[in-house]
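Bug report

Summary: structure tokens for Farnesyl-diphosphate farnesyltransferase differ between web form and batch submission.
Environment: batch mode, default settings.
Steps: 1) Submit the sequence below via batch. 2) Compare with the web form result.

Sequence submitted:
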Amino acid sequence: MEFLSLNTLPATDELLHGILKQVSRSFYLTLNVLPVGVRDQMGLSYLFARAADTIADTDLIDRAQRLKYLNQFRAQFTTAGIDWNAIREIQTALIPHQKDSGESILLQRLEDCFKLYEACSVGDQERIRWLMEVLPRGMEMDLTRFPGESSSQLTALSTLDELDRYTYYVAGCVGEFWTRMVCAHRQTMANWNVPEMSAIGVRFGKGLQLTNIVKDIGRDLQNGRCYVPESLLAEAGLKPADLLIEASLPRFRPVLDQLIGLAMDHLDQGWIYTMAIPVSEIRQRLACMWPILLAGETLKRVAVAPDLLNPAVNIKAPRSVVYRAVALTTLTCANAFVATTYWDSLRKQIGPA
């Protein structure tokens, strides 16, 4: 078992944090809640995941080229050394097309990110390498499974198994990665059964991704993507195109309730995961509590939203609710009774599937 910090000098640490501040100040602030010993590895992994996502989402470049650059990016984690020419090719092709300043900065600093990766311990490199082999499969699935860019080219997933596979690629694997990383670096986690807790961590990640799917359904439909499986829609007498009509929401509700119930079942497993974290690991507990509680607050609003299928609507917990959840759990030092009471209350408000 490895209990070492990222093998970096202070200047390297400053480099990573400088990039994170430039790319996403909100994520940088969230990152600071993580315990020492895993903070930098998680930050670097976030930058790589966001870079892969940026490559896949640059819609001003055709899909074949995006797939090429995505595979070129992923290959850097499987070869003996970094192909710096390949990195520069990605930068040259993609930077001019970025609308978001954070994504543009990230691509400009991509070489620095890989230098940080080279400075990681062998164990951390292996864990990040594993993540960057699995995570981009979800982005590749988006590019190949959904060939259109608009509602006129709408395509849906076929089955629940396909949805489950997709949620594993884009989020479930992060729970597995997280477990491996904290167990390698936090002495208090040494007694965890890594395979068992990784499996629960996978459920945690899937629950968060399903929450994103149901809250963003209107916008995804407009972009030609229906993550709601055709098999579920057929049970309600619906086709994917029916969801483009806002008046279809009442008929869609039973399907929505089923997806919300599935998300809640996954998040319940995430709560079990969180409560298994040693009491002394307050930072790690908070880092797990917050996304679950905010996902629950979001699902509560999704379940009753009258305009869910409207692509202009952005359903999320208001800032006051976010601040309340953060304050309550922080001021009580991630107390299990207080936080679980909050979660149970949310569970009842959302109701059974």
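Above is the batch result. After comparison, the two runs are identical; trailing whitespace caused the diff. Residues 13 and 61 are 34 Å apart (CA to CA). Residues 8-121 form one domain.
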